[in-house]
Amino acid sequence: MAFYLGIDFGTSGARGVVINEVGIVQQQVRYPFEMSPSVDLANIWQTALFSLLEQISGEWRREIQAIAIDGTSSTVLLSDASGNPVDAPLLYNDGRGAVVMDRLKSAAPPNHTVLSATSSLAKLLWMSQQANFAQASYFLHQADWLAFLLHGKLGISDYHNALKLGYDVEALQYPLWLDKLQISIHLPKVVTPGSPIGELRPEIAVKYNFPEDCLVCAGTTDSIAAFLASGAELPGEAVTSLGSTLVLKLLSRTRVEDSRYGIYSHRFPCLKKLETKEDLWLTGGASNTGGAVLRQFFTNTELENFSQEIDASKASTLDYYPLLKPGDRFPINDPNLQPRLEPRPDDPVEFLHGLLESIARIEAHGYELLQELGADNLTRVYTAGGGAANNTWTAIRGRYLQVPVLRSVNTEAAYGTALLAMRTMRELNAFQTG
């Protein structure tokens, strides 16, 4: 029997899921990140990647046919010609690109996805002004670099990760307006998510006892991987990822793009036989609110216990905009948006109720905005991420969303990435035998 490995790099750690050829999970492995201001992110990622491989049972490793990796959208780094990072990576929510927005606006079309301080292209422009840019040969997304560590081929990305770099996912090419920016670096070659890139490096296959022909596939972003894992597949169905941040994805026949609100659309393969065989669009956005704010004030045990004391049928009177630091991306795209966490009641249950209710309002606002701008009407919301297990929060969200709110078929983004690898091998085998 064949097996497939999906690896997810989130904000708090890395996870791996091994599935068999019918999608049943065989093993799950984890590597939590210990973050600090002085941490070497690239080194942590590399250590995490190979730790996950080592944790997988040798029984499964010997039969794994394909591997795919997802990373956080717009987490990027520069590397030299050998793939070594030349500086610290910039994370998904890094807003240093705000200082290059005038230059970016002079080249990009109005309201384009890249016109955000946290977009991959804004980060690249900021990087191009730094002294060590002269040492760089490649601009890579997190998932691109991690996959390179496995297959050894530099400068390859997928069109999900490359969207916020300016790649035209409708025409499947870089737009001509990018030339106006005159950035002297190799932009990634962009392929379809899940495309086979190359076999696992021989030394890695031998060390970890993988098949010598095990393929490493092009990856995707963590939120799209979560969508793949959810079970959603029809227009109007959506996935909310309640992890460290809040990510909304709504499957739509219509592409919606508007940088004023931090909204963008990913090209998405049609998974069901609809009246059209054309690809659909996964439209949405990502907010900096979410679980990371909750964990600033509560332990996991407190979150679980206090949530059980909340009456989810009653609305909280507290009106917050929960952020760890100034700035949000969606549904309000403002790098200077101030956190609103006052007044703070003495009762921790009341405070948590206000936080959960406020994040639910932000989620509902996000879906309302997507529909106002032309996306399909919301019919169902699946939930992924750690917040999916909080029944109180689910009930509060259902009150605002007014549609069924369900837990995803599988809540691990790594499961969705494993499905991506599995589908790639199925299509490859079908092509070879057809």
Overall radius of gyration: 21 Å
Weakly predicted, low-confidence segments: none
Q: Classify the helix fraction into a percent range.
A: 25-40%
Give a quick account of the main beta sheet: strands, pairing sense, barrel closure. Answer: 7 strands, mixed
Tell how many strands the DSSP assignment holds.
17
Beta-strand level of the residues, as a percent range? 15-25%
Q: What class would the helix/strand composition place it in? A: alpha/beta
Q: Mean pLDDT across all residues, rounded?
A: 93
State the distance separating the first and last CA atoms: 21 Å
Number of helices: 12
Shape: globular
N to C succession of SSEs = EEEHHEEHHEHEEEHEEHEEEEHHHEHEH
Care to describe what's here?
It is a single chain. This protein is of the alpha/beta class and 434 residues long. 30% of the residues lie in helices and 20% in strands. The chain is built from 12 helices and 17 strands. It has helices at residues 41-55, 58-61, 101-105, 120-128, 142-151, 202-208, 222-230, 291-297, 300-308, 348-372, 391-401, 413-433; strands at residues 3-9, 13-20, 25-32, 64-71, 76-79, 138-141, 156-158, 189-191, 196-199, 215-217, 220-221, 237-242, 246-252, 264-268, 280-287, 380-384, 405-407. The strands form 4 sheets. Strands 1, 2, 3, 4, 9, 10 and 11 form a 7-stranded mixed beta sheet that branches. Strands 14-15-13-12-16-17 form a 6-stranded mixed beta sheet, with helices on both faces. Strand 12 (237-242) and strand 13 (246-252) form a beta hairpin. It starts with a strand and ends with a helix. The mean pLDDT is 93.
